[in-house]
C-alpha cells in the first residue's frame, strides 16, 4: 500500500499540539524527528522529550488530500511552520526489516538467530529470537556487549537477573548458556510478553520468571545480574540494582554512551569492585564484582 508523509517543521513547544492535529486528520502514525540531528538518548518512562527544532511527521494513505491539511496548518501557524510532502515507496516494511536482521555471533559460543533464519552453526549455543515489539535483537552495540559478557561466564546452574529484559534476549541467552534460572524484570508489559514468547521458542520457559516491577518479589537476589537499559535509570536505580546482587556476585550494565561511563563507574564503585570498561562504537559496558 503506497503512503504519503507530511513533514512539519516546528518547535518543541508546538510539536505535541501539531501531532494531535495530524492524528485528527487521520494519520496512520505520527513521529517526531530532530530537525538538526541532535539526538535525545534518555526520555524517562512516560516522557516525550523533544528537541528545540522538531519535525513532526504524519503518515497518510496516498489518497489523502494533503493540500487541505497544509492549508489548515498555514491558517493556524502562518510562516512559523515549514512543510514537506513526500511519496513513500510501496514496500513490505516488515519484510524489509526481516531481510536485514541476520544471525550474529556474540563471543565464542553464542549465536543470536532470527526465528525465520537457518542456524549457521548447529553445534553452537543458538538463541532463536523474534523481538516482537520489545527492544533487543543483538544488533545494537550495548546488547552485543552484554551478550559477549554472558558468553564469557560459567553460568552452569546459576541464577541471573535480567533487569529491563526487553525481548528477553539476555535472560534466554543466559539460560541457553547453562544458567539454572533467569528472572526478567521490565516496566513494559509488551516486553514481558515478548520475553515469554522467546523463552517458549527456545525451550527455556520453565526456567524463566518474569515480573513487572510492582509484582517482583521483595528481597530478590542473585549471583549474576545484567541491566541493559539507559544511563538515567541506571543512575537513579543504582541502589536497587546493587541490592539484587549477592556479595561476591557479578554484574554488567550497559546502555551507556561513552561520555557517561565515568559517572556511572563512580556511582557503582560504592558497591562493586569494577573492571576496566569495555567500549563498542560510542557505547560502554561496565562490569564488576559485588563487595
From TrEMBL:
It comes from the Bacteria. CDD domains: AdoMet_MTases. It holds the Pfam family PrmA. It catalyses: L-lysyl-[protein] + 3 S-adenosyl-L-methionine = N(6),N(6),N(6)-trimethyl-L-lysyl-[protein] + 3 S-adenosyl-L-homocysteine + 3 H(+). One of its GO terms (biological process) is methylation. Its main location: cytoplasm. GO terms for molecular function: protein-lysine N-methyltransferase activity. Keywords: Cytoplasm, Methyltransferase, Ribonucleoprotein, Ribosomal protein, S-adenosyl-L-methionine, Transferase. Coiled coil: none annotated. InterPro entries: Ribosomal_L11_MeTrfase_PrmA, Ribosomal_PrmA_MeTrfase, SAM-dependent_MTases_sf. S-adenosyl-L-methionine binds at residues 143, 164, 186, 228. NCBIfam families: prmA. Belongs to the methyltransferase superfamily. PrmA family. This is Ribosomal protein L11 methyltransferase. It comes from Ruminobacter amylophilus. The lineage of its organism: Bacteria, Pseudomonadati, Pseudomonadota, Gammaproteobacteria, Aeromonadales. The gene is prmA.
